[in-house]
Amino acid sequence: MTVTDAATGSTATRGRPWASEALHRADPQIADLLAAEAERRAETIQLLAGENLTTPAVLAALAGPLIDKYAEGYPGRRHHTGCALADAAELLAIDRARELFAAPHANVQPRSATSAMLAAYAALLRPGDGVLAMSLEHGGHLSCGSRANFSGRWFEFTGYGVREGDGLIDLDQVRDLARLHRPKAIVAGSISHPRHPDWAAFREIADEVDAYLIASVAQTAGLVAAGLAPSPVPYADVTVAATHKLLRGPRGGLLLSTAELAERIDRAVFPFSQGGAAMNEVAGKAVALAEAATPAYRAYAQRTVDGARALAAGLAEAGMRPLTGGTDTHLVTADVSTLGVTGLEAERRCAAAGLLLGKCALPYDPAPPAEGSGIRLGTGTVTSQGMGEAELAGIAGLIARLLAGEAPGPVAERVRELALAFAGPR
Question: Do residues 190 and 138 lie in contact, with contact meaning Cβ atoms separated by under 8 Å?
């Protein structure tokens, strides 16, 4: 089906603005690159944990007239005129975020979850303050103390980890480290741990040492929205989320907080760490938040978890040990060293056949961090495309064949066949 291109009067395939004649005339190189990217996606299987497909409605909002509206500030307090409709869009996004997550306050302007984390730190901390967070080696994000990141340069981080025996977060260690270091803030959440944090336990520890509790749910905010993961909002002072990944919105961040911290959070986003908001992204977030409140989205989120469990079981059957023995989420982290390969080599072999996943280091990993002993996978994208438990179990078998040393050719043919079968309209 086609629609008229508003700028040129020509036609463009619905949902494929990169195919417009206007873009081809203005910049054929970029147009060709975008078309090639669409083809690449159609012929490969995306298992990268941080990726998903935005919905057609979100894409429409992103390409709408708010894309070039400058709306520095907040609704009713803009630095420029002509912002009444931008204000209305942002207020819709705020109200929908507050209702969806039962949060007293929401800020929808952060451009990423990392910039949202920066704002959370800026609102609560001063340079040199201590922070207790999951160590990078055990699944913490770069914004939880990496020296290559602002967090590790501005604050004093101490890392907690998981138990070696079962891979679960060691809450006794968290408590002991909190008592020893007396941090100003504790961060709960990770990018690769497949189990739900015990938010009440983290709150109790934070209260004991008079620390703020920051919940990081960039990966799992969609499961919280769907009621399939326990919500951190009743326990955390600030919750940091991503609006892409499972929420299927635009790339961006979201901050939820207590009412008492609302002004500090807002000032930490603007004017401290960001300029004018990207209002098309704010509109896209509003759409995604509305969609996430529907029964259809909850069913989608449940399928991501079911598919991840089927994937984890298939990997385990092939000799790859899933971290913690399985998953509660859309994430699967598995040890591939049992098959005699590193995570890096596993990533390369799978990519050669069109299976896109990520290498990762594991807790207590003997391999160098650049190689790792594990792989991290997510089921958000393939579930958006319509794949289910049967397909995910089959994909586990394809991964096993590649890591066992099979040439990529036959597997690549099956990958392309499977990908094209699920590459239709979202």
Answer: yes
pLDDT at 40: 94
DSSP assigned state of 294: S
Q: How far apart are CA 208 and CA 136, in angstroms?
A: 25
How far apart CA 35 and CA 32 sit, in angstroms, is 5
* CATH match of 295-421 with 3.40.50.300: no
Helix (H) or strand (E) holding 289: helix 279-291
- Tell me the chain's radius of gyration from C-alpha atoms: 22
- Between CA 187 and CA 199 the distance in angstroms is 11
CB 320 within 8 A of CB 362: no
Output the CA torsion 366→312→167→46 (10° steps).
60
Q: Are 215 and 236 in contact (CB under 8 A)?
A: yes
Task: Tell me which H or E stretch contains 150.
Answer: helix 150-154
Give pLDDT < 70 ranges for the chain: 1-18, 424-426
**Nearest residue to 289 (alpha-carbon basis) of 13, 36, 58:** 58
Can you tell me the distance from the alpha carbon of 301 to that of 246, in angstroms, rounded to the nearest whole number?
A: 8
State the distance between the two ends of the chain, measured CA to CA, in whole angstroms: 14
What is the per-residue pLDDT for 18?
60
Structure tokens at 229: 């993961």
- Give the type of residue at 52: N
Report the SS3 class of residue 254.
strand
Q: Give the closest residue to 239 by CA, choosing from 107, 62, 84, 406.
A: 107
Q: Same fold for the domain at 65-291 and the one at 295-421?
A: no
Residue-level pLDDT at 17: 63
Q: What is the DSSP letter of 242?
A: E
Q: Which of 296, 294, 324 is nearest to 308 (CA)?
A: 324
pLDDT at 16: 65
Secondary structure of 295-363 as H, E, C letters: HHHHHHHHHHHHHHHHHHHHHHHCCCEEHHHCCCCCEEEEECHHHCCCHHHHHHHHHHCCEECEEECCC
Please check whether residue 163 is in contact with residue 170, taking contact to mean a CB–CB distance below 8 angstroms: yes
Sequence spans of domains, the chain? 65-291, 295-421
CATH 3.40.640.10 fits 65-291, yes or no: yes
- Which residues in 200-284 belong to E strands, given as ranges? 212-216, 238-242, 253-257, 277-278
Q: d(Cα 395, Cα 188) in Å, to the nearest integer?
A: 31
Residue type, 275: G
Partnered with residue 257 across adjacent β-strands are: 105, 238
Query: What SS3 state is found at 4?
Result: strand
